[in-house]
Amino acid sequence: MSGRPSTGVPILRLGDVLLTGLLNELDDKAALAFTHELTERVSADGARGVLIDISRLEIIDSFVARTLMELTMMARLLGARVIVAGMRPPVAITLVELGIELVGVETALNAEQGMAVLGWHQSPQPPEGAHRDSTR
Q: Of 16, 28, 58, 135, which residue is least crowded by CB atoms under 10 Å?
């Protein structure tokens, strides 16, 4: 067992992209642990992209905003592109009202669009009951 605290935030690997998310329950200590854990994973996994889904985040403060900016800069230094996806309108409004700019942070409307920006595309699914003819 390592000496660093666990955030309890899952970090999934999809090829060379890491997928994770932020929850409202993330306090300052957990946010720092999350940053450390995610940057370690970017390096260890050789990730070229990171998608952070914040669609479950209902509020944001200046500390979390700064954490997102710092995480983006750290990942960029390690060779990965970060997309923050799923920002709710109240979170966007709060950032503007507080005068907080997420400098250097790329955003996407939702996780699917964010993954597309990182080079992932959903393949079309055949209609139910359809099958491919393997003969020529």
A: 135
Does the pLDDT value for residue 41 go beyond 70? yes
Instruction: Judge whether 36 lies within some domain.
Output: yes
CA distance 114 to 52: 9
The answer to whether 120 and 14 are in contact (CB under 8 A) is yes
Spatial distance between the Cα atoms of 60 and 100, rounded to a whole number of angstroms: 10
> Among candidates 57, 52, 116, which has minimal Cα distance to 83?
52
Residue 62 counted as domain residue: yes
**DSSP letters spanning 37-89:** HHHHHHHHHT-SEEEEE-TT-----HHHHHHHHHHHHHHHHTT-EEEEE---H
Alpha carbon distance 18, 25 (integer Å): 21
Which tokens in the block code for residue 106? 């790329």
pTM: 0.81
pLDDT band at 50 (very low <50, low <70, confident <90, very high): very high
> What is the count of structural domains for the chain?
1
